[in-house]
Specification:
Blueprint: E1 8-11, H1 20-28, H2 31-48, H3 54-64, H4 71-77, H5 88-97, E2 102-106, H6 110-117, E3 126-129, H7 130-133, H8 140-150, E4 157-161, H9 166-173, E5 176-180, E6 196-198, H10 204-209
Parallel strand pairs: 1-2, 1-4, 2-3, 4-5, 5-6
Helix pairs in contact: 1-2, 2-3, 3-4
Length: about 210
């Protein structure tokens, strides 16, 4: 009897599944300003570790790139406008129809994480936020909490990253990683190579069907 390579999938939410970049750009007033703001936010969260209020980190990032801190509140107010990348909901629904346990591990507050997860178009078995875990990715604890919530060992779960910073965290936990790189980001120095590096999720189901 053969078994499939992975039994469950954990996802980064705000970059792997949702086009949060367009919302940040809209709040910032331009694509250039939005990308600078978001890039700084990613750098801050990468080194933060123990949880501090998500909204504070977003405000600090805005200030660091010469933008008003109030934009963090504007972004929070518009979280319900988040949209999935093209093809994402179709892929998620196809996996859900096969009863594949799905969860998200996201650097976010509990309230905003729930709002964002509802925008993806599928019901997740687990939604793990940095606030719930007490730490920001790439600390290993949020990933481990996601695995615990799905009841699966690291070797039997595939992680779908959006930000390349996830490659650092998943390597510490032993999670194979499919990097869904819609934005074209550079991996941080010293990060592990992903199992796949793709611009869409089209190949994701094949990784689950691959036999051991």
């Amino acid at each position: 009897m053969t078994s499939h390579r992975f039994d469950a999938v954990l996802f980064d939410l705000l970059t792997a599944l949702l086009d949060s970049w367009s919302l940040w750009n809209a709040v910032a007033g331009s694509e250039d300003a939005g990308r600078r703001w978001r890039a700084e936010y990613l750098r801050i969260t990468y080194r933060t570790g123990a949880y501090r209020p998500y909204e504070d980190l977003v405000a600090e990032a805005a200030e660091a790139v010469g933008m008003p801190r109030r934009l963090a509140g504007d972004l929070e107010d518009r979280y319900g406008e988040l949209q999935p990348w093209p093809g994402v909901t179709r892929t998620l629904q196809a996996l859900a129809a096969r009863s594949v346990p799905l969860g998200v591990v996201t650097n976010c507050s509990e309230r905003l994480g729930r709002i964002a997860a509802a925008c993806a178009g599928v019901d997740f078995t687990a939604v793990i936020t940095a606030e719930k875990a007490g730490f920001y990715k790439p600390d290993p604890r949020p990933y481990r909490l996601g695995l615990q919530a799905l009841g699966v060992e690291p070797s039997r779960c595939l992680f779908v990253a959006g930000s390349p910073y996830d490659l650092v965290g998943t390597a510490q936990v032993g999670l194979a990683t499919y990097w869904h790189d819609r934005v074209g980001m550079a991996a941080p120095a010293g990060s592990s190579s992903p199992l796949a590096h793709e611009a869409t999720l089209d190949l994701l189901p094949a990784f689950l069907d691959e036999e051991r």
